Structures are given as C-alpha cells and as structure tokens.
Amino acid sequence: MPCNDYEKSIELINEFFDIELSENFGEEVFKVLNKIIPLASGYIFFTDPVRLEYSYNKRTSDINSITQPFLQEDLKLKNTTFGKIIITGSDFSAEDKKIFKTCASVIANITKDREISEIIKMQINALQEGYQKTQKNNKKILKAEKIKTKFLSHISHELRTPLNSIIGFSDLLENEFAGTLNAKQKNYVNDIKISSLHLLGMINEILDMSKIEAGVLTLSLRDFEIRQAVQEVINVINPLIIKKNIELETKIENFTIKADYQKFQQILFNLLSNAIKYTSENGNIKIEALKGKNSAIISVIDNGIGIDKKNHKKIFRKFEQIGESSVNSTGLGLSITKELVKLHKGKVTLKSSPGSGSEFKVIIPLE
Ligand SMILES: Nc1ncnc2c1ncn2[C@@H]1O[C@H](COP(=O)(O)OP(=O)(O)O)[C@@H](O)[C@H]1O
Ligand SMILES: [Mg+2]
Q1: Which of 99, 39, 49 lies closest to 74, judged by CA?
Q2: CA distances from residue 77 to 5, 55, 353 in whole angstroms, order as listed
Q3: Least confident of 92-101, 135-144, 343-352
Q4: Where are the beta strands (DSSP E) in 231-283?
Q5: From ligand 1's centre to the CA of 173, what distance in Å?
Q6: Distance of CA 62 from the midpoint of ligand 2 (Å)
Q7: What is the model's pLDDT at position 274?
C-alpha cells in the first residue's frame, strides 16, 4: 500500500532527527528545532500561527522585534502552511548559516520526495559533524596558542635582561671608561655589540609579536620631539651602519608628535635595520621625518636589493621572507611594524622594485 504524503513526511522526520513525530506536529517540529538550536548562537523562532509562539535562546521573547530575519521559511506539510521558522540575529558564523539554511529547508520541505530528502539528510549530518569537529579543534588550538604566547613572552623577557647588561658593559668598554683599548680590543668589543644588537632585535620582535597575539599591546601616548626620538634610534643602530660602511643621510624636521615613544622608536628601528640588512656594503640610506598637513611622515629609503611588486603585501605578513631567510631574521619585523603603526591609526606604504632600492613610508596622524 503506497504511503500518502503525510505519512511519508512523518516517517522522514522521524528518521532525520531520531524522534517520534505524532500528528501534533506543532509540538514535534519544536523538538526538531531544539536539535538544531544548540548549534546556533543567534535567535531562532518557531511560531505556530494558530496556537503557539515559541522563542529560543532566550535572547528575546518578542517575535515582533524581528526586523530583518536572514532566513524565513514557511513550514508546510501537504501544501498546508502550519508554521514559520524565522532565524535572525547578526552574530551567526557562515557555518551557522549553512546549517540553518539546510535544516530549515529540510523542515520546510518535508513533503518533498524521498531522494532529495536523503541528500539533504546527508548534508545535514556532514555539516553537524564538521561543525562539532571544528569547535573541538578550535578550542585545542586556542589553548596551545595561549601556552605558546605565554612561554615566548616569558623567555624573551628573561633573555633581554642579561643581554641589556652585555650591551651596557660593552658600551662602557668601548668608551674606555675602564681603561684605554688597543685597536684589536676595540674591534672585538664592537663585534660583541653588533651581535648583541641583532639578538636584542630578534628577542624584541618575538616579545612584541607575542604581545600582539595576546592582544595586550597598548599605547602609552605622550608628546615628544621627533628629532630626539629619531636620533636615539640612529645612535643605537650606528654600529651596524659603520660595520657596513653605509652612508646615512638624514632630513629631519623638528616637530612634536603625540605617540608611544618606545613603539615609535621600534617602528623606525625595524625599518632601519631592514634597510641596513638588505643593502650591500657602501650603500646609501636616507631617513626623512617631515611634518605633513595633519600627519608625521617618516621615510626610510635605501638603495639596496629592492622588492618585487608581487611581494609587497606578503612581506608584511608574519614570518614571510623573500629569498633565503638570512641569519638574524625572524621575518616578524614588518608585520609588527604594521601593527604598531595601525595602533597609532597610521599606515605604512612601500615603493620598491628589484635593483632600485626601497622606500618605506610611515604616516601617522598628528592628533
Ligand atoms: N629594505 C628592504 N629591502 C629589501 N627587502 C626588504 C626590506 N625590508 C624588508 N624586506 C624583505 O621583507 C622581508 C620581511 O621583513 P621583516 O618582516 O622585517 O623580516 P626579517 O627582516 O626578519 O627578514 C625580509 O625578509 C626581506 O625579504
Ligand atoms: Mg626585519
């Protein structure tokens, strides 16, 4: 005896959701929806226009407050509309939406033929499984990320302290506070300083990146003179400039900026150390700090190896390096620089092509 539409629908729903659906489908569809709801984070309503009005997720109980539902389907059985499923809210993930749409069409079309329903059933199962797996994995990844960030920030901090003392004492030696040095000794002390600077730069990059990832990097703003901030960075990095016999030209207008002093210097340090690193011996580097109409424009220009246009975006991403990664490189400098500039509501631009040097420009709004 062939089943009629109604019996077939009930049978299908029972199979889909592993529940017993009786003739009282208002209540039963409610149960079906209840199976879907744990997957969602937004609002779901099911209304029975004749008798009932349900609300879910306890976000709101007023169906009239729904202004722009992203999904609205009539619930039909044997071509008779007996309810509506309305899903609203803005905090759904793409994954949520996919699941809802599939579920809603399953429920809304329970009278359609069995083959289609079978396909939908498979889709729904796959979606549910995928969703649960993703959630589990996300949790694991988040936990691992947290441990990694904490570890990196701890270890970088611990490494920085002795390193600062190495740099400080080599400064004292170099400046002959502890007695005169012969040429060879001076050379050695300079080497110690250069290696320590490289190491400090890398540790700072890892520490900064772990702070950015943990979302704890904040600005401490104050007014300061551009010229002094730039000059201090040049002083720190000078041993590297001397070592490569690079000619440094500066054009620094003096004006005041409100920014985070240490982070401003970090931005310049990153760009300048790149310019030195990717420029050959006897090359030229120019630092400009100009006052624009409403912004400070800091440029670091070199005549080094240059960067192909196709890599201009890539190098601002974490760990991305062009060509063979060199020693003293983490591949983090530019992505940190970009974040630090962004925190100041500014932007970094790049003009460069292979063989004709690079120009990195940082634009930070004044106020
Ligand atoms: N001034 C520059 N000239 C040429 N290439 C550069 C310059 N600055 C950055 N790059 C390229 O961008 C990549 C990413 O830079 P960065 O994030 O600072 O990492 P790192 O300096 O540790 O390699 C570098 O590895 C290099 O390939
Ligand atoms: Mg770098």
Answers
A1: 49
A2: 8, 22, 66
A3: 92-101
A4: 247-252, 256-260
A5: 32
A6: 56
A7: 94
Q: Is 9 in the pocket of ligand 1 (CB under 6 A)?
A: no
Question: What pLDDT, on the 0 to 100 scale, is given for residue 111?
Answer: 35
Distance from the alpha carbon of residue 310 to the mean position of ligand 2, in angstroms: 19
Give whole-number Cα distances, 71 to 66, 77, 78, 96, in Å. Answer: 11, 19, 22, 12
Pocket test residue of 284, 312, 315, 360 for ligand 1, highest count of atoms within 8 A of CB: 315
Test site for ligand 1: of 203, 269, 334, most ligand atoms within 8 A of the Cβ: 334
Question: Three-class SS of residue 299?
Answer: strand
Ligand 1: residue whose CA is nearest its atom 10: 274
Of 198, 272, 200, 201, which Cα lies nearest the Cα of 231? Answer: 272
Is the pTM higher than 0.70? The answer reads: no
- Condensed to tens digits (0 to 9), the pLDDT of residues 309-338 reads 999 999 999 888 887 766 678 889 999 999
What does the pLDDT read at residue 97?
A: 59
pLDDT tens track for 65-77 = 555 555 666 655 4
Please tell me the distance from the alpha carbon of residue 255 to that of residue 228, in angstroms, as a whole number. 10
Determine whether the shortest distance from the Cβ of 28 to ligand 1 is under 6 A: no
